[in-house]
Design goal:
Chain lengths: 137, 147
């Protein structure tokens, strides 16, 4: 009824199509539409998984008596401790590993200038040739 | 009360003598008013490096671990007494570490440098040392006078 009055007011634009609402206002259909609406309150499904370092992921407590674990963070050629850019540990774990290795070496549990030959066959936890970021020097 | 760990390296001896040394070292802890929680035998094995003590070079040692409590002031005396013990090759006392829960921060650390907190702090710190720039306070975004 409404648009007829507009037509009368604007006789010049007779060929103009005036759009009217096509949605019926029955309550049953409206609720069904709402059901089909996507749920915008859900968590972001594309969010990336938080990366964790290998010791945090498996919840390993580093201890100076666990020489087999500590020697995996030691170079077989020089006996020096690999840095964070190679081991891929988080800052806290790296500091822990370093302090525990120093304790073990001081207590006579662990070699200082080499990796003990019984640990040479141990699996590699990280690739020493491809550090995750370049050397700081 | 702090629990300490004593790592004791004894020279290679027959069993009765080892027993005597362990009793002697334990008595010294009791003498300081301490008590022992645990004694662990970590075995006899080749040392990772040779050690000379009391005029002898040792390449093998028996490893023993004591877990004990003593007043912290008597730690130096204990170590001194073990140092004078001929059968002890090496001794170290460490605090027993209680595992503290912490969050893994690897995700923030592997971000590109401009997004890392420590790098941002470093840049902000470096900016403090910049030479102060002259402020003309004209309200204009260009220099109004002839240069």
């Amino acid at each position: 009824m409404n648009f007829l009055t507009i037509r009368k007011l604007l006789p010049v634009f007779n060929n103009v199509i005036i759009r009217t609402s096509t949605i019926s206002t029955t309550p049953g259909r409206l609720s069904k539409d709402q059901e089909d609406q996507p749920n915008f309150d859900m968590d972001n499904p594309f969010e990336k998984v938080q990366m964790k370092c290998i010791l945090c992921k498996h919840n390993i407590q580093v201890d100076y008596k666990n020489v087999k674990l500590l020697s995996q963070f030691q170079s077989p050629y020089t006996g020096r401790i690999y840095g964070r850019h190679i081991t891929g540990l988080c800052k806290t774990q790296q500091e822990l590993v370093q302090s525990e290795i120093t304790k073990a070496q001081s207590a006579g549990l662990m070699a200082t200038y080499l990796k003990e030959s019984c640990f040479l066959e141990d699996p590699q936890l990280f690739d020493t040739e491809n550090p995750i970021r370049p050397h700081k020097y | 009360m702090i629990t300490y760990e004593l790592m004791l390296l004894l020279r290679i001896m027959p069993k009765p003598e080892v027993k005597q040394v362990l009793q002697r070292t334990a008595d010294q802890i009791f003498g300081k008013g301490g008590f022992i929680r645990k004694i662990e035998n970590l075995g006899t094995r080749d040392m990772p490096y040779k050690t000379s003590s009391h005029g002898m070079v040792h390449k093998q040692a028996s490893y023993f671990l004591y877990e004990f409590n003593v007043p912290p002031s008597s730690l130096a005396d204990l170590l001194d007494e073990y140092a004078r013990d001929v059968d002890v090759i090496r001794r170290r006392i460490y605090k027993k570490r209680e595992p503290e829960p912490f969050e893994c921060t690897l995700q923030e650390e592997i971000l590109p440098p401009p997004y890392r907190k420590d790098v941002q702090d470093m840049i902000a710190d470096a900016k403090k040392h910049d030479k102060p720039k002259f402020q003309s306070n004209t309200g204009l975004d260009y220099y109004p006078f002839q240069k």
